[in-house]
């Protein structure tokens, strides 16, 4: 396996900002994209950080990803809205959508917003964090419109995306609770990272083309293609299915039917339910009860191999503290980033340095 390299966090964020500026993004889109992707790496989700950049660049080159788009409202009944992202950069489109949802939730107590036709929106927890920063709770059902990767429970061929489910709960003077995971047994980006690292995937998450269990990540990238299993058997499959129906079809978004797929395009639809918890009139109770309950949950005796019971959202905070100065990255992904910069240079006549210029000097 190739060793990880260490990147200077600030230098790689600046490099990524420069890459999207060179590609043609306006200042705010380049900044939102760079901040989002580096934050995903900082949070420990390398699957949704720098490793997605080569795919975004391919999508741009194939005229799938559209830069500098603004959302447009296609249905508006106050607290219920549908917006179109026009295949725009998900890191900007989702930020605009959440700003609108928060504004409406302030006015009405709750907002239910369907976002359709967005390019990949990355780590969905980021959008729950935008709501949390405004004191709002949120629930997100997201579907993926690109080559299906996940086999339905009992099936062997892929039919669904990795459709994440996300819930954010703000707390006063205490860290929020943030549930944010793919409904597949593992996020496909983690298989991609294993593939680049030439490492084995964990057992119990992949089927090969014959429907047999395997740990070879190549079954997701090389013919004959296999499939990811759903998380927790029929439960993850059912949640993933609901993400396609509630997170897309119900408000006019596409499911990953073959006729909706575009080569190299990676699109998301998202239903975000955003609400102000204070409107229930039980804020003092909520804060007290949550603090006491989380303490009680933590007090459970640990398994021998576990050091502590954690609360959803805590692993990401621990990772951010660990990675604040330096980001580990596998050499395979670094090489792909260098190629992505070279192709932007060819496309736009820019002079971006390679990503390895952000290596941490120790
Ligand atoms: P994961 O399996 O690492 O699970 C992460 C969630 O579980 C977090 O809420 C985390 O706080 C919690 N968690 C982890 N360990 C815990 C523990 N020991 N105790 C308590 N809680 C714990 O996540 P994943 O399925 O690999 O997904 C990673 C990211 O990928 C998510 O941010 C998701 O939004 C994103 N994603 C995006 C898309 C897309 O199309 N945009 C698709 C799939 C996944």
What's the CATH class label of the domain at 71-184 and 233-280?
Alpha Beta
Major sheet strand order: 2-3-4-11-5-6-7
CATH topology heading of the domain at 71-184 and 233-280? Ribosomal Protein S8, Chain: A, domain 1
User: SSE string, helix = H, strand = E?
Assistant: EHHHEEHEHEEEHEEEHEHHEH
Spans where pLDDT lies below 50 across 5 or more residues: none
What small molecules does this complex bind?
Answer: nicotinamide-adenine-dinucleotide
What average pLDDT do the residues reach?
Answer: 96
What profile does the largest beta sheet have? 7 strands, mixed
Q: Provide the CATH superfamily of the domain at 71-184 and 233-280.
A: Malate/L-lactate/L-sulpholactate dehydrogenase, NADPH binding domain
What would the principal axes of the Cα set say about the shape? globular
Radius of gyration: 20 Å
- Ends distance: 22 Å
Q: What's the β-strand tally?
A: 12
Q: What is the count of DSSP helices, taking H or I runs of 4+ residues?
A: 10
- Helix content percent band: 25-40%
3D structure, described in words:
- With 362 residues, the protein is an alpha+beta fold.
- Among the domains are: 71-184 and 233-280, 2-Layer Sandwich (Ribosomal Protein S8, Chain: A, domain 1), CATH 3.30.1370; 194-229, no CATH class.
- It is 37% helix and 19% strand.
- It is built from ten helices and twelve strands.
- It has a seven-stranded mixed sheet with strand order 2-3-4-11-5-6-7. A three-stranded antiparallel sheet has the order 9-8-10, with no helix packed on it.
- α4 (90-108) links the parallel β3 (80-88) and β4.
- The protein is globular and about 55 Å long.
- The mean pLDDT is 96.
- The structure holds nicotinamide-adenine-dinucleotide.
- The site of nicotinamide-adenine-dinucleotide (NAD) has 27 residues, from β5, β6, β7 and α9.
